[in-house]
Amino acid sequence: MKYCITKIDAAVNQLDWAIKLFLDHKAYVPAITLAGAAEELIGEILNNEAAFRELQSLLSSKYNLDPKIVSQEYLNKAKNWLKHWKNCKDNDCIELELETEAMQYIIRAISNLFSHNCSLTSESPRFLKWLYENRKDIF
To answer: Which of 27, 34, 75, 89 has a 20 to 30 A CA-CA distance from 105?
Structure first.
């Protein structure tokens, strides 16, 4: 059976599953890749108003870093490492704070969706409640 799905529908679905995997299963790796995909998909519509672009600009100017370094070494390092095999060997590994990385991709995706059409996914309120209850340091 064929379905018609918009890019926004796909991003919303990816984001909801990222949140479910994060909250219900502590499955941070797929949460990172799904939230990263949703964030990137919606971010393409927003261009310079996307959460990624705003963070990249803010951090590169605040710390006097090249925007590409901010992107590759900080904002997208986890997502890119989990997505691509480029220049890696079978036993290469990376040290990541998986929960923190997953949170920041989910937050960026939620921010992009809200910036795009002032909406939240069905799982977003549950994630935001969890964030408020468990990571007050962010607020």
So the answer is: 89
**Alpha helices by DSSP H, 47-135:** 51-62, 67-70, 77-83, 98-117, 124-134
Contact 109, 42 (CB under 8 A): yes
Q: Is residue 22 part of a domain?
A: yes
Rounded mean pLDDT of the chain?
Answer: 94
> In this structure, is residue 57 part of a structural domain?
yes
CB neighbours of residue 70 within 10 Å: 21
pTM above 0.85, yes or no: yes
The total number of structural domains in the chain stands at 1
The letter for the amino acid at 66 is: D
* Cα(108)–Cα(119) distance, integer angstroms: 14
pLDDT per position as a tens digit, 81-139: 888 777 767 778 889 999 999 999 999 999 999 999 999 999 999 999 999 999 999 87
Distance, CA of 9 to CA of 30 (rounded, Å): 19
> How far is it, in rounded angstroms, from Cα 55 to Cα 78?
16
